Amino acid sequence: MFPLGIALIVLGSAVSLLNWFTLVLSLRSDRFVSVVPLIGALLLGCGLGLFPQTRPFASLAVIADYGTLILIISLPRLAYSFWSTSRFNLICAFRTEDAGRRVRIAIYRRGIALIETLFDPPVPTGGGGFAVAISQMGTWQPIDGGYSLAGYAADRQLLIAHHNGTYRTRELQYPTGTEYNHDCMDGLTLHRS
After folding, report:
1. In whole angstroms, what is the distance from residue 113 CA to residue 104 CA?
2. pLDDT at position 181
3. Nearest to residue 57, comparing CAs of 111, 12, 25?
4. How many domains does the chain have?
5. What's the CA gap between 86 and 190, in Å, rounded?
C-alpha cells in the first residue's frame, strides 16, 4: 500500500500544482486557461487516505486542487444556469433552416434568451477559423406581436415579429462592412417548435 499511496499523492499533487499554474497563466496572459477538475483532488485525497497519519487531512485535497475548488464554488451558478434553460422554464422556441445553417431561438422565463446556430458545412469566420456551432445567450422582452432579444452579441438587437402565421426576424445594429456575416440573424422566417 505504501508505494500506491505515495504514487497517488505525487500524481495528485502534480495535477493540483498544474491547476494552480493555469490560474497564474490566466492572470498573466488575460486569456482563459482550462483546469482539470476532480482528478487532482481525487488522486491526492485517496493517497492521503491510505496512510493513517495523513487520513485526517485527506478532505483538504479539495482545497489543495484549484480545479476542484473552482468547480465546487461554481456549482450553484451552474445549477442556476441549467435550471434557467431547462424545459421547465421554456416559454417558446423557434426553428428555421436557412442556407446551410439550423437556427433555434429559445425564450425562457426570467428574461433569458438562447440562440443556437449549427452550420453544415462549417463556415469561415476569419483568421483561418471555421464555425461549426454558435451559442449566444441574451435577454428578451415582449413587444407588440413578438419579442425583442438583446445582449447576445455586443449591442445588437433581434426583433421577432408575428407575420401571417410565421415569425420573421429583423436584426438591428449588425456591424456593417464585415467580411463574414455567418452570425447575422436578419430576415429569417421562423416556425414555432
Report:
1. 11
2. 81
3. 12
4. 2
5. 21
pLDDT in tens, 142-178: 999 899 999 998 889 999 999 888 899 999 988 887 7
Closest CA to 141 of 126, 151, 129, 131: 151
Q: Look at residues 57, 84, 111 and tell me which one is the last residue of a structural domain.
A: 84
Cβ neighbours of residue 174 closer than 8 Å, sequence gap 6 or more = 156, 181, 184, 186
Q: Which residue range forms the structural domain that includes residue 117?
A: 87-192
- In terms of Cα–Cα distance, which of 187, 155, 182 is closest to 170? 187
Burial of 1 (0-12, 13-18, 19+ CB in 10 A): exposed
The CATH number linked to 167 is 2.40.128
Q: Which CA distances in Å does 7 have to 13, 42, 50, 66, 72? A: 10, 13, 11, 20, 25
What nine digits make up the cell of 9?
499523492
